[in-house]
Amino acid sequence: MIAVREDLTEVVAGGMWIFLGSLVVSLSGFIFWVILSRLAGVESVGIASAVVSASGVATTLVSAGLNIAVVRVVAAGGPKAFTTSVILAVVLGSAAAVLTIPLIHSLGYGGLTYFASALALLTAAGVAVTQSLIGFELFKGFFTTLLTGSLAKVAVGVALAVAGLGALAPLIGYLAYPVVALITGTSVVLPLLMRSGTLRPDAQEFKELIKLTFSNYPYTFSTQLMTMLGVYFFAYLIREAVPVGTLYIALMITLAISAIPNSLLSAALPIGVRRGTEPFAEGFRIGLSLATPIVVFVGAASSAVLRIINPELLLGANTLKILLLSLPPLTALTSAIMSLNRRGDIKGLAAVGLIRLAVLTALLPPLTHYAGLLGASLAYLAANTTPLPIALKNIDIGHNLLKLWGIQATLILTSASLSNYVGELPAAAFLTIATIPLMHATRTYSIQELTRTLRTAIVHLLRS
Description:
Blueprint lengths: L5 H34 L2 H22 L2 H12 L1 H29 L5 H23 L3 H24 L5 H27 L8 H36 L2 H35 L4 H21 L1 H8 L7 H8 L2 H17 L2 H40 L2 H6 L4 H25 L1 H18 L5 H17 L1
Helix pairs in contact: 1-2, 1-6, 1-9, 1-18, 2-4, 2-5, 2-7, 2-8, 3-4, 3-5, 3-8, 3-9, 4-5, 4-8, 5-6, 5-7, 6-7, 8-9, 8-14, 9-10, 9-12, 9-13, 9-14, 10-12, 10-13, 10-16, 10-17, 12-14, 13-14, 16-17
């Protein structure tokens, strides 16, 4: 009988709620834009999406890194750190609101400045509240907050679109999300705050939060660079809509799958801080193992997956494969980042993040220019691989990384020849099933562990 560490059980349970929250946000966002494009019209949606994007760029430029820092500081400092986090978020959100003004005017939508600036401020404040819930280990409350905010966004947007407000409908709908999330999140954490002796912010804690925010900045920003600015830069170089859309879709698929291990690692940070444990290596192993069958299936059936979305995306099949094979090193880096945050290692955080950011910014322009979609995906793979030597010095996951990475790469590459005999989808299904005995045989993740993990998640879900 394999002993089960209590903190790992809590990591699985907490990670489940975080993953479900991420899933709700993604699905509601898709539903929101589909419905609003029909009710408010494509032009209104185009204006709103441009305004939302400008607000998002400003918020990212100013506050990237705040999310991880808030989890760490709140887990260590408790209710006082919550106050500190909200204050810093409002300061950074105000700066983002100001930065949004020239971005909006450059798009020619100066009349919507107030909406964009308000969205930037509220989004930053929302980060402090929602990430504090993770820091307090109120994982179900985190899910509830994201769910209510998402439902409010869809409901308000649809109602106003029916009322004929045009572009204002999706904009006000987007504003409803952080407003409702702030109210819900605060109500969830309020009982805990009320039991606290004092909520007065601490100056030393404020300094630590700032240091951690900007130490995490390069790593967080480099992710946003690829998903946001990278797509924009690719569009600038290629100037063709289909390749740009293909890169964006492939990135979104990759990041959606990465949410599985990332959710467990996000839950591991406050649990590790509050209990003085290091659950990150096991969080990495369990999270990446759970993601491996999905990585193999999507990688092996990349053409079929993209064809289902839109036949014009087929040119991105190999791009999607490469992006998927960047998930193991990306998850390893995230594990190291979480471990470094637990220890408050400012220099280590900055080193890993800066190397990743430097490699991505150095390789993305030339590789995109000469190799298009494949070049962009290779730049992303290189950026996630180059900092590994430093990251692996801080967390003992090298052997499991190599085994899981090897399983994924071998099966995805094997799918190319196997598909010629049995077809792409049957080959993908067979290879996906093969991941489970392979992980068991390599002692990476046993069938018993998989069963126990699924049972833990289901039990916690049913109890709630």
